[in-house]
Amino acid sequence: MKEIIKLILKYHFTIIFILLEIVSFSLIIRHNEYQRAIFSQHASTLFGNISSVTTDVKDYFRLKEINEALADENIQLKKRLEGFEVLRDTVVRGIVVQDSIPVYDYTGARVVNATFNRVKNYITIDQGRKNFIEKEMGVASPEGIVGLIQDLSDNYSIVIPLINIDTRISAKIKKNNYYGSLQWDGDNYRYSYLKDIPYHVDVVEGDTIVTSGLSKIFPEGIIVGYVEAVDRETANFLKIKVRLAVDFKRLNHVYVIENKKKNEQNLLEAINYHE
User: What is the pTM of this model?
Assistant: First the structure.
């Protein structure tokens, strides 16, 4: 209490001046219509701006929650779409199949770390063994293919993305189904190259490149990118420059793809065609 009294005594002139200013301002506003109108206008503008800023701040902190909700919704829609496609194929072929269930399942994940300026880039996601993630599962985003699971712990996984010189996937030209091998050259993170396409194949700038379905990792038809340029690599094959659909610098949410019949296929191939 003594300290407060000392502080008041020390700054009493300043305190009296501020109180007088407040009283004077109040009297001016109360007895002058014009000044009161000006004050009300500016006060409304000030409080309106404060309210707008407060709303913007709240919206900013809700973005993470909204993005995660949208990512989960996207995964659920993918599951439903695959179920409809299975049903459609069953009906079209006129076959009643007891086990007409989707082959693939999807687990949402958030990117927690990533590189894109190395020749062997990697991405870390926040899902691991506890979430039933396994090595060599595929990873994609709503925009397109991201990469493959290489290593994992209980709660995290390392993804080797398309922009890693060790990553190769089977991809095809959507309009004619000619397929080849897609591999990054270690240069620009926005472009990769599709090789082993016969030179006579009709392919032009803007054509869509998708997964071929000729692997146990990715379903057929997921977007990989778009043809940027076509060069003749050898006398027999083309080298197609592909602008990747995924912008790895802006990657936030992904989903891990599980082929629920992969182990069955691996076992069958190992028994009958092992070397």
Answer: 0.67
DSSP-assigned beta bridge partners for residue 145: 140
Second CATH level (architecture) for the domain 103-273 = Beta Barrel (2.40)
* Spatial distance between the Cα atoms of 148 and 164, rounded to a whole number of angstroms: 11
SS3 (DSSP) at 108: strand
> Which sequence spans correspond to the domains of the chain?
2-55, 103-273
- In degrees and rounded to multiples of 5, residue 80 shows phi and psi of -65, -40
Nearest Cα residue to 255 out of 119, 135, 110, 44: 110
Nearest to 165 by CA among 124, 208, 122, 215: 122
* CA neighbours closer than 13 Å in the CB half-sphere of residue 226: 7
**Cα–Cα nearest to 113, from 149, 69, 158, 147:** 158
Q: Is there a contact between 151 and 135 (Cβ–Cβ < 8 Å)?
A: yes
Helix (H) or strand (E) holding 91: helix 33-93
Residue type, 250: R
Q: Check whether 225 has a pLDDT greater than 70.
A: yes
Q: Which residue has the higher pLDDT, 99 or 209?
A: 209
To 10 degrees, the CA torsion angle through 202, 203, 204, 206?
140
What CA–CA distances, in Å, run from 156 to 3, 36, 58, 64, 146? Answer: 56, 62, 29, 19, 16
